[in-house]
Amino acid sequence: MSEFHDDYPSYEHMAHHSEEEGKKARRTLWNVFWIMLAITVFELVIGSMAPSHGWSGTLWLKVLFIGLTIAKAAAIVMWFMHLGHEVKFFKYIVLVPYVLFMSYTIFIILDEGVYSSNEENRTKVDPILIKQQLDLKAGHGHHNQPANEHNAHSAEPAHH
Fold this sequence. Notes:
Elements: H1 11-14, H2 19-53, H3 59-80, H4 88-112, H5 127-138, H6 147-155
Helix pairs in contact: 2-3
């Protein structure tokens, strides 16, 4: 009887596995869990250290995080989606489009992500708008006029 004292059949019985095969499958799942946890903790530690060490935005950090993310995705696909047990042809049918898509996505992120950092690629703003924004930030304009100055203008007779 199981440790939960229910009548639900054991994994080994349902999957037609022996006790040894069931233990091996559980051991594999726990190994995958610990590997994924270690990678995630490593990513979090490096990510939290990056700003204070001046690593933010460096190429090696980007490559490291992309590589670790791909490794975790591959582990999920190979173990949890059971692709590791399939025939080689089926593995390629599933993995080639994924690898192509991920490669293209990484290329776009790295190539187009710096597009606006070049001055010639930035949107040109009208100089009058820039002056108005600077005036507002400096406190000029009708919203910040002293009350007596505003009243002086409204007390003037209207000229028709």
